[in-house]
Amino acid sequence: MVDVLSQNEIDALLAALSSGEMDAEELKKEDTQKKVRAYDFKRAVRFSKDHIRSLTRIHENFARYLTTYFSAQLRTFVQINVVQVEQLPYDEFIRSIPKMTILNIFEAEPLEGRMVLEVHPNVAYAMLDRMLGGTGTAPTKLNTLTEIETIVMERIFSRAFDSLQEAWKTVIELQPRLEALETNPQFMQIVSPNETIALISLSTKIGDTTGMINLCIPHVVIEPIMSRLSVHHWFVSQKRTRAPEEQEVLQSRLTKAKLPIIAELGNSHISVREFLGLMVGDVITLDTKTDEPLNVKVGERLKFHGSPGSTKGRMAVQISEIVSEGAEEYDE
Fold it and tell me: Could you give the 3-state DSSP secondary structure of residue 96?
């Protein structure tokens, strides 16, 4: 970010240039020199800012779907929001999570490789407590999951992957499937330690318990669909044409739509007193002559000109002219 100079700093800089303490030419040379920026190959940049923005949009939807799902399952207040989307080495992610946590290792066909949904113990045990009839409070001491608790956890998070599938629907049709549930990060090695991952951090609140849910997506897993995460792809996919079958269905429904058709014989203006005094046999003079065409409207739009008549004992209008789009109504 560019530093903004204060007025005193600007005055001091101008005074130094005027007195000769600073040389303007030297300052220009410094600006033209190439600036070298250090690059850490252990923290390779694989995701562009465009990719990060797309991942943020996708997982904001994921957070909303998860909020709805957990609220229904736990029957308590749940709030989940995206806090940060960043890229970092897989080894750094492993070292940043607790030594004992809930690690949902899953696959998502057609993508190849494994991903991880890490749930902080406070959040996971609060969910478990609610599912087993408790108030949803996290325990003060964490113990190894029992067999029953493991089964309950697997059922909770297996269904949570439906929300991930729905969030990614605009990019690719995923089929997430829980592969294993681990509690020790050291036993989980899904990619090499230096592999770059996208880490989506979700702040989670269940009742009075707060914690984090982290989604770890290795770059090597989503590399085949990286082009779909660009803004250009999003705009193109939004503008894609309808399939022929959809067009046929839409056209058939339009042909069955009913619209009112109105043939106007003319217009007239009378007072309320005259209107209230109308009787059978009275004649109202219209502003249209007998040899002038009638305005035929479809809905409220003028579409045709026609002539009045009758057919088989019924009043009818014979269309004599099609009014082009945007034409004004016929006036005398």
Answer: helix
